[in-house]
Design a protein that fits this description.
Order of helices and strands: HHH
Number of domains: 1
Helix content: over 70%
Largest sheet: none
Distance between the termini: 64 Å
Number of helices: 3
Number of strands: 0
Radius of gyration: 22 Å
Oligomer: single chain
Structural class: mainly alpha
Shape: elongated
Length: 95
């Protein structure tokens, strides 16, 4: 039993607004090292969905009953997508 405890339900938009306000306040008062670490995590996790979405699409489309030519075209186009996407990173590391 819960005595006197009410669960407060906050919808998504107010949560996002509260998170933005708290991050602005924390960014002004926390040391620069902690802010840089949080920026690094933000950049890593914001790039992760962009990498995973094509893989999820491949995983859903591959077992589907599609023609052989369409499957080959899809494989070639997805290979080109990832090879083009990785090439600027490789060039940047070499220089």
């Amino acid at each position: 039993m819960k005595f006197g405890k009410r669960k407060i339900h906050i919808s998504l938009l107010p949560r996002v607004i509260i998170a933005i306000i708290l991050s602005l306040i924390a960014g002004n008062f926390l040391p620069a090292f902690i802010v840089r670490v949080s920026i690094t995590f933000n950049s890593l996790f914001s790039q992760f969905p962009g990498f995973m979405v094509p893989l999820i699409i491949i995983g859903l489309v591959t077992p589907a009953d599609i023609g052989r030519d369409i499957g080959n075209l899809f494989a070639v186009s997805s290979h080109r997508l990832y090879s083009v996407d990785a090439s600027p990173l490789q060039r940047r590391r070499e220089t």
